[in-house]
Amino acid sequence: MKKLLIAVFALSMIVACKKEAGKPVPSEIDSIAQNKTDSAGIVQTHADKEAVLKQTNDEVLKALKTKDYTTFTSLIHPEKGVRFSMYAFVNLKEDKHFSKADFEKYQPTKTLFTWGAQDGSGDPYKATINDYLGKWVFSKDFTTSQYSLNKFIGGGNSLNNLKEIYPKADFTENYIKGTEKSGEMDWKTVRFVFEEFQGKYYLIAVVNDQWTI
After folding, report:
1. What ranges do the domains of the chain cover?
2. Is the N or C terminus of the chain more exposed, i.e. has fewer CB atoms within 10 Å?
3. pLDDT tens, position by position, 97-140
4. Whole-model pTM?
5. How far apart are CA 11 and CA 27, in angstroms?
C-alpha cells in the first residue's frame, strides 16, 4: 500500500512538472489537436461558401432550363419548403408557399394555383406548377445571366423587401439586362434565397423581379 501511494505521488509530480514547464499532458494534446481541426474546418467552410452557393444556384437554373423538376424538388428546404414571389416585394400572406412534400405531390399534376396578382391589370395569375416555373420563373434563359451573391443588380419601381423578410439567409441574383429597343426597361431577374440545413444549402424562396408599371 505504501509503495502504491509513493507511485501515485511520483506520477502526480511528473504531471505537475510538465504543466509548469508549459508542456501539455496527453489529454490536453488531444484537446488542442481537436480544436485545431475544428478551426480548420470552420475556415474551410467559410472559404468554400461562395463557391457552394454559386454551384447550387447553377443547379437550380439548370434544372429549370431542362425542366428537371425532380432535381429542383431535391433542392427545396426539407423543413421550410419554398415560397414563390412574382415580383420583388415578398408578401408572406399572399405569395404561394409549398412544403417540399406538397410541391412533390402537385408538381406533376394539372392543378391550378394562384401565384399572385399581375402588375398593371391586377388580375390573378393562375397556372400549374410546371407552367409557372417554365413561363414565369424561367421566362428567359437565366443560365446566361449576370450573377451576384447577396447583392442586388436589377431594380425598378417595385419595393424590394427581400432582406427584411429573409435577414439571415443568403441570396443569389441572376440578371438579364434590358434591350436598347425598349430603353432597357425590359430587364428581368430571378433571385434564389438559400438557408443551410444539416451542412447543405437549400432553396427557401424564388423571387422574380422586373420593371413594373
Report:
1. 37-210
2. N
3. 999 999 999 999 999 999 999 998 899 999 999 999 999 999 99
4. 0.79
5. 15
